[in-house]
Amino acid sequence: MSQAMQVAPAATDGRADGRTRVGLPAAAMVATGIGTLGLGIVFFATEVHHASPAQVGFLAATWSFHYIVGCLLLRRLGEHLRPHHSMVAATAVMALCVLLILRLDRLGGVFVCYAVYGLGTSLFWPPLMGWLSTGNEGARLNRVMGRFNLCWSSGAIAGPVLAGVLARQDARLPVVAGGLLYLAAGLHVAWAGRGVTATPAPPVPAAAGPGATAAVGDRGTPLRYPAWAGLMAAYLALGVLLTVFPLEAQRHLGLSKPTVGGLMLVRALFTTLALGLMGRTTAWHFRTGQMGAGLALFAVTMAVLPLARGPLTAAAALGLMGALLAQSYANSLFHGVTGSLHRARRMAVHEVLLSVGLVVGGACGGTVYQHAGYGAVCGGVAVALGAAALLAFAFPRHPAPDGL
Predict the structure, then answer these.
(1) Rounded to whole angstroms, how far apart are CA atoms 313 and 306?
(2) What is the arithmetic mean of pLDDT over 49-76?
(3) CB of 193 within 8 A of CB of 131?
(4) What share of the chain is helix, strand, coil (3-state, %, to 5)?
(5) Of 57-61, 164-168, 306-310, which gets the smallest average pLDDT?
(6) Contact, 234 vs 322, CB < 8 A?
């Protein structure tokens, strides 16, 4: 590889430090809010509005579906806004919609607010993720996105636990907590992001010298396609775990709300640990074998999940699935943006696909659970994970592009 083809670590200046100071705490707060509301809305809809399992599943899917719509239709709006402004606008909309839910008497109104909440969320994650990744490649990209993954996944750990504790007192409290977290994130970005709003230029060849222009041409890897398929299948499983598993755990396993929250904590904790490990290693880059093996193990674990009859066995299964979810997420994140000149767009694809998984897992999972039972839901998800594993194993080998 020639010296001219090596990509310089362009994002090593103060702007990169400023972006992480703004973006990483905001990611942790918003992820905590999403985790709190994601489990809290199940308790809120069931106890306050007496929603059926199918309605709970469709309510969870409403957020994910409109998040997808927002990523597709509001993408150009997000590109015209500075990341700092887009994040502030997003958190303001999210906080307003979530807190308004508390004032509504009808479940239909909750659906409307939850839909707008999903649209608002689409102006937060893709701009933030594209902003943090721009100017980074290879090991540095892995480190930056690894830190991002640790921040949002730490929020995902705290959120369900907070929801379980608060819901034991009042099913409305997790909704309140989510709204306040979004307000806090927006205020943090508005204050800390002053003067740190510029997006760095794309990386230039290391030997180009002063005044050189950015490298031309997108060098993204085709391995993003099996990684994206695995991501969607993994988040199909997560959609079931977030909406159907809490109902099954309370109704047939006899577990309390704090215990359910604790099991969600185990899943999120293992996700965080695995994301941290993958953020510190590069051996998995540009390798489909590890993608396929992880997805195959995920499929087997999902298929045997209905056999878990107590909190310990459920915690073991959820912990393993949390780690495998992290593997799929990290593969999609890295292989989706590496070498790309349009990172916010690739991040939007990443977010759309994981949200499609959540929509199908939540909506279809709740309906299948109500009519066919828990085993049918888990078996269907296992089939989808197995298909994604076969795609990864069958995908042609693609080495890393030069300079990456």
Answers:
(1) 10
(2) 87
(3) no
(4) 75, 0, 25
(5) 57-61
(6) no
pLDDT confidence of 69, banded at 50, 70, 90? very high
- Mean pLDDT to the nearest integer, 325-354: 89
Residue 327: name the closest of 288, 360, 366 by CA.
288
Between 277 and 399, residue with greater pLDDT:
277
Please give the Cα distance from 249 to 370 (Å, whole number): 14
Concatenate the DSSP letters of all residues of 157-174 into one string. Answer: HHHHHHHHHHHHH-TTHH
Per-residue exposure over 287-316, b if at least 16 CB sit within 10 Å of its own CB, e if not: bbeebbbbbbbbbebbbebbebeebeebbe
CB of 64 closer than 8 Å to CB of 358: yes
Place domain 14-200+220-394 in its CATH homologous superfamily. Answer: MFS general substrate transporter like domains (1.20.1250.20)
What is the C-alpha separation between 199 and 252, in angstroms, rounded?
A: 51
User: What does the alpha-carbon distance between residue 119 and residue 113 come to, in Å, rounded to a whole number?
Assistant: 10
Nearest to 354 by CA among 90, 125, 86, 29: 125
| DSSP symbols for 324-390 | HHHHHHHHHHHHHHTT-S-HHHHHHHHHHHHHHHHHHHHHHHHHHHHHH-HHHHHHHHHHHHHHHHH
* Average pLDDT rounded to a whole number, residues 349-357: 89
DSSP code string of 13-29: SHHHHHHHHHHHHHHHH
Residue 12 has pLDDT above 70, yes or no: no
Higher per-residue pLDDT: 336 or 57? 336
Residues facing 205 on adjacent strands:
7
User: CA–CA separation, 281 vs 363, rounded Å?
Assistant: 36
CB atoms within 10 A of CB 148: 22
Q: Which two tokens stand for residue 63?
A: 């957020």
| All structural domains of the chain with their residue ranges | 14-200+220-394
